[in-house]
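thought: fold this chain, then report.
action: predict
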Amino acid sequence: MSRVPGKPVCRDMDGHYSLHLWLRQDGKFDGDLALTLSPVEAELLHAQLCFALDGEPVTTYDDLTPDCRKDPRRIVSRVRWP
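observation:
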């Protein structure tokens, strides 16, 4: 199983998230499916992935990297004071 290249995670009208996957058997494409997650399941997966990735180098562009993966010393506050 692997992610479909170039197909982002999307949210449907009911607020559920879909992760598009390719199924392979013995290295050959066998079909595709969408793993659907509720908002709670998606948030839990996000937290678990951030925890699992702790200590690994960040390989995404800074503007695409979630705050949980950024160096806390480099996070710029989004709060704007008058």
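thought: worth noting. The two ends are 50 Å apart (CA to CA).
final: tokens above.
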